[in-house]
Amino acid sequence: MSLATTEATAATPPAARPRRWTARPGEAVAFGLVAIFLLAFLVVPVLTVVTVAFQDRATGGFTLAHVGDFLSNDLFMRSFWNSLYVSLMSVAVASLIALPLAYFTTRFEFRGAVLVQTLGVLPLIMPPFAGAVAMGLLFGRSGSVNLLLGDWLDINIPFMEGLNGVIFVQSIHYFPFILLNLSASLRNIDRAMEEAAQNLGSHGFRLFRRIVLPLAMPGYVAGASLVFIKVFDDLATPLLLNVREMLAPQAYLRITSVGLEDPIGYVISVVLILFSVLSLWVSSLALRGRDYATVQRGGGGLARRRLPRGQAVAAYVLILLILALVLAPHLGLFLLSVATVWSFAPLPDGYTLAHYARVFAESSQYITNTLVYAGLAGLIDVILGTAIAYLVLRTRMAGTRWLDYVAMSALAVPGLVLGIGYLRTYFGVTLPNDTSLAAFWGIIVLALAVRRLPYALRACTAALQQISSSLEEAAENLGARRLRVVRRIVLPLMAGGIAAGFVTSFATAAVELSATLMLVQSNADAPLAYGLYVFMQSPAGRGAGAALGIIAVVIVGLSTLASHLVAGRGGKESA
């Protein structure tokens, strides 16, 4: 299971349970430990944020005064509407990018379809805030594209101005969610239905609008809802583009400038949670009561349609232009990482490796911390994911399904909200060395683990669902104890899914910024994403920041490749 596929399908619930056994003491202990972890590091911090948002500071009682202050403040309401506008427009632009790639590569004879799909997923492995600076150099007012347009046509297009820049960057970064889900849905449509429509005179765009897209709507809605959530909750991209009038930046600025006692920051956090949950609910509501089933999955082996020569040429040109656009951040970041000076020119004035040397000489701690934090977070996630999957699928204990629901609810909790919740909940908890728990580097690991738990959980659940419970029953009938059965039978057979879950959690945790931006107390404890954000704050540091960004892309890319290899080996072994 790859990184992109796991993230795009993380919200998919587990299938019906096979035969389950009665719970035993070891399973009860596992249930208790998992429940304590989720309560301590997910439920309680989130409830703390919600409580403070509705708590009177003088009496401690319930109040809506803070909500009233939020609603009556022009800045906050403008930030709310800006966030909503940017999220909806990002979904629209991301759809325009993803639809042609998905449609032409899945429904027609299209050479290079696998390469197009692979390149289309690459934007996900780059932190969006890293690509924002590179996009500014390419598409900004004095960027490469506008300099060339000014020389050739005497025009300047405001690609990166204000909210346009946020929409542009976010659309390019998150459109793969729509691409992945929509492609999967398009592949499952019975092509005989298209042929029947063609025989009745429906062709071209009418065929796509009336037959193909409606049947693929579940995949599109799933991808679009993920894009909306990610954009609505994103913090770093607007900050790096100097766009402060959005909800996530306002929450961050209120907490960091006014302090942890400021209730408005918590009200904004509650709004972020509500809209994340609302987007998931609306996406499920949009599909309720409708039948999207087809007779035969994938058309029962019917051949893909051929495009007429003229349309084929136009399709290739369109897709090449789209790929050039979505891969532009990678090119821009690489050029910036090796540029001596790049200002008011289409390309850098010269090239150097000094930025990489600076990173490894001065900031290698960022890389080391990232490997440690992401590695520990991935380990925690696969342990919890395996335990929850086993309890849900193999026991009759009451409440196991709620463990799954609570763990998956982390998808709807923005990293910024989790970070604020940790600060508020654990700032007063003191460790034996007189250090606040909220200032301890381990709290960053816990935040990363909670944020990425849904991905590992779905990978572990999928792996366990493919193991027949009859194998475990046979081992028990031969006298093996339950713990021995789990250790010698279940875990080895789940190894592929566990490894894929670890790699996915590791890769996504390596570039997480929203939660860590709130929790990092010193540069010595900062991970790579935080260092990248700090470097990108000043023009003098952007070369080194770009080099750090390329290193982040390499780490995530290698992790994604490892996930593919693990999934492939797991498939061969299970076969």
From TrEMBL:
It is a multi-pass membrane protein. The keyword ATP-binding does not apply. It is found in: Cell inner membrane; Cell membrane. Keywords: Cell inner membrane, Cell membrane, Membrane, Transmembrane, Transmembrane helix, Transport. It comes from the Bacteria. Gene3D superfamilies: MetI-like. The keyword Cell inner membrane applies. Its main location: membrane. It holds the Pfam family BPD_transp_1. The chain crosses the membrane at residues 28-54, 84-104, 116-139, 159-182, 211-232, 264-287, 313-345, 371-393, 405-423, 435-453, 489-511, 544-567. Residues 80-279, 367-563 form the ABC transmembrane type-1 domain. Belongs to the binding-protein-dependent transport system permease family. This is ABC transporter permease. It comes from Muricoccus vinaceus. The lineage of its organism: Bacteria, Pseudomonadati, Pseudomonadota, Alphaproteobacteria, Acetobacterales.
